[in-house]
Automatic annotation (TrEMBL):
It comes from the Bacteria. It comes from Brevibacterium sediminis. This is Oxidoreductase. Residues 200-228 are annotated as: Disordered. The chain crosses the membrane at residues 20-37. Pfam families: FAD_binding_3, NAD_binding_8. Residues 136-394 form the FAD-binding domain. Gene3D superfamilies: FAD/NAD(P)-binding domain. Keywords: Membrane, Monooxygenase, Oxidoreductase, Transmembrane, Transmembrane helix.
């Protein structure tokens, strides 16, 4: 259960010989790390810029549906929330690939393929956060980092002050700032956060079709991060659950993408299109996709209808980001702040949880003083190559998934008939076969 607790209220529980750890961002990575450390007898300080838990979990910009690979199972076990996790999710067994016309190309049993490693389950982001927070998860809401100095241990925090009502929502403004010292600072509040930019120095983007990397100001100077802009995005909404809650359906179209992902009691729908088509609107684009499909299953029909009827569905720009260095002094990046994933491989949340587990190992052995430098560098050395392997896989899949020409779509459909699901998932299976060693 999420409990609102100010920074100072959380710091009161830190013993004099215990390291002071600040975790910025109460998303999947931040909450997983905080709860692991708390389970090991530590008292990290967890903050989030959201005004309250309702906005933190309920905001559609924070994500919808997730498919979690078995790499999260050790985390679930350590947090002793397996029963709640199983209750809040559905087991995914089948993957159904459709041609760009809607015809079924093949059906594979992912459950059998992954059974040796653990569970593959669908869950909504809000339900996962409920599971991870358990019975006690203090968070300082409306709190942001406005400055990092020295080796990152000196942090300037601002607590938002809530003002008058405007357009049905509460206004927030920066309140009084406070300067505090921490032994380690974990930035886990996303790839587009201001806090992350205090560490990386700012975003640098490269188009997927491009070959060079440019800095944030457009020059050729080396940048502290790289990014891919697929020039695609998509509308996200919910459809009603059906009788096939163990199955994921995807249509890799010619100028569109339709993904259908089950969770407990609902189906998450993602309808992708090139950025240039976004002004058409979700309703008209869904109708256009419907008219181009020659095979229409009841499930596809229901999901397109859900997009057509959704009121102002969130449009998710498909961009990613990768920091060239995670740790700097006593500050480290975690989750999307280190590597913000494209959703193409469905592994970003799983890698964030796995990384939180590895970082928890290093921080658990931390004492007060300069030891954080080595601990954070060890974490990066242990986990970075694994995260970047999964990140590369997501980028590679994006090049195949987001095609615009009918000829390319036809050739891709033919290839689907011969490429085994084991071959397609080889990079993921390699990660599962050699999990990081845990303390």
């Amino acid at each position: 259960m999420i409990i609102a607790a100010t920074v100072n209220e959380q710091l009161k529980h830190v013993d004099s010989d215990e390291p002071r750890i600040l975790i910025v961002g109460a998303g999947i990575a931040g909450i997983t790390l905080a709860q692991l450390l708390r389970g090991r007898g530590m008292h990290p300080t967890l903050i989030d810029r959201s005004a309250d838990s309702g906005r933190m979990i309920g905001d559609n910009r924070a994500g919808y549906m997730l498919a979690l690979m078995p790499m999260v199972d050790p985390i679930i076990e350590e947090l002793e929330c397996r029963e709640a996790y199983l209750e809040a999710s559905v087991g995914i067994d089948r993957y159904i690939a459709h041609a760009h016309t809607g015809k079924v190309l093949r059906q594979d049993h992912l459950g059998d393929l992954l059974a040796d490693f653990g569970d593959y389950r669908g869950i909504s982001r809000s339900a996962l956060l409920d599971v991870l927070t358990g019975s006690d998860c203090p968070i300082a809401f409306g709190t942001t980092v406005t400055g990092l100095s020295g080796d990152g241990a000196t942090v300037t925090l601002a607590q938002a002050s809530v003002g008058r009502q405007r357009f049905g929502e509460q206004e927030q403004s920066r309140g009084q700032e406070e300067v505090l010292e921490f032994d380690a600072v974990v930035i886990a509040d996303g790839m587009n956060s201001r806090t992350r930019r205090l560490v990386t120095g700012g975003p640098a983007a490269t188009a997927m079709s491009g070959s060079g990397k440019t800095s944030a100001d457009g020059s050729d100077k080396p940048s502290s991060e790289s990014a891919v802009d697929t020039t695609w995005g998509g509308w996200v909404c919910w459809a009603e659950a059906d009788d096939d809650q163990d199955a994921v359906d995807e249509i890799w179209g010619d100028g569109f993408f339709l993904g259908i992902y089950p969770v407990k009691g609902a189906i998450g729908v993602f309808l992708g299109c090139p950025d240039a088509r976004q002004p058409l609107g979700s309703r008209r684009f869904a109708a256009e996709v419907r008219s181009r499909l020659t095979v229409m299953t009841p499930r596809i029909d229901a999901c397109l209808t859900a997009v057509e009827k959704a009121e102002a569905p969130f449009f998710w720009p498909l961009r990613d980001s990768r920091a060239q260095r995670w740790s700097r002094g006593r500050t480290v990046l975690l989750g999307d702040a280190a590597a913000g994933f494209l959703p193409t491989a469905g592994i970003g949340a799983g890698m964030a949880m796995e990384s939180a587990g590895v970082l928890a190992d290093e921080l658990s052995a931390l004492t007060t003083g300069p030891g954080a430098f080595a601990a954070l560098e060890r974490f990066e050395a242990r986990q970075r190559s694994r995260v970047e392997a999964a990140h590369d896989n997501s980028r590679s899949l994006a090049r195949l998934m987001f095609g615009r020409s009918g000829l390319f779509a036809f050739a891709r459909d033919q290839a689907f008939r011969f490429i085994s699901i084991r071959t397609a998932l080889k990079p993921i299976l390699q990660l599962l076969e050699s999990p990081p060693k845990r303390m």
